[in-house]
Amino acid sequence: MTNRHFPLFLAKPMDPHRTMQGEDSQQWAVYAAEQSIKPGRQFGDTGEVQQFIDDILASRAWQERFPRMKKVEVSGRKGVDDHPLVGRRTYSYGGPRGRMPYAEGMISLHENMGFETVVLHELAHCVSPQFVGDPSGVKKGALGFNSPQHGHGPYFRASFSWLCEHFGSDGTHSELWDAYRHYQVPAAPVDELWKALEQSAHWEGVLQAMHDEEEPSLPKQPEADGQRDAPGAAALGAPGLESMWWGSFLWEARVLAHRTTKTEVARRVSLVTRCKTADVTRIENYRQPPEDPAERLLAFQMGVVLGADPRWMLTAQHLFRMELGARMKDLEKLNRHWVAHVRWMNRALRQRPPYWRVSGHR
Ligand SMILES: [Zn+2]
Fold first, then answer.
1. In this predicted model, what pLDDT tens digit does every residue of 18-38 receive, in sequence order?
2. 205: CA distance to ligand 1 center in Å?
3. Exposed end of the chain (fewer CB within 10 Å): N or C?
4. How far is the CA of 55 from the centre of ligand 1 (A)?
């Protein structure tokens, strides 16, 4: 696979000028790989996690490789979260924050995820290159949708595996490599990671200067109904969830990844379920998950047509095939690559099952 531009959706690669990576198509495989390794050290509370992170940041290995990142703050959350996008699920997140080039990061850790693998995963989000490829196509005033990527691409995996090598429990690094190989989601070679970090820092500086010069156009929320032209799902900082609306994953997939029309999506979905252009508009514009099962099924089928990651649809969008009664043979008519991916993943999971489970994303 290419290390430069990540395929966002299964059916078609992302436009190379877009640096944003939203719902990455490899989330399922990446999660499955790390869940097949031991969870590592368990932390008692947020203070212990903060100490673990502080020790990492004070180490020589860290200072040689990530000298810019000076501080990562950990916060904890308890119980079940209720978020319009993430909903009532357990989730954690991590990422850089503040001015670019980033010198600070933050990790929000759910109490069910207070163990080494998840902590290092979130730390990898803080330090992995935020801008990859060539964002020279970014226009002034349009930073809203060329925002940092929060995905789990090859550079993220390289960062995570470097962290496991230096700060993880014995054996996690090699186990992780085996797991990535098994799930066919290799990490970028480490020397490419260092190059990508340099390049990202350069672009972060450029983009910060553009921000300082001109107010960026902030992400626009969609109208409750009707057309909308402005892209804008992604936030300008971590974790990026607050400024998204529920249907944005479909809008992004259709417009940014596939550059296709609502009419075309409606035509494809209609191979299985009656769907008109107005239905596509309505579903893309939902701010929160619709409750009507028919609407949910339609959203799910749109996701399949657009090749959205099955795991992402479950953890972030709450769309689950079984629950919706979507039959594989129908879905095959919509996107046979998607179905092949699901079958392949299920086989891979049987061969290398999870060691631990958490319900939400991270
Ligand atoms: Zn993650």
1. 333 334 567 888 999 999 999
2. 24
3. N
4. 22
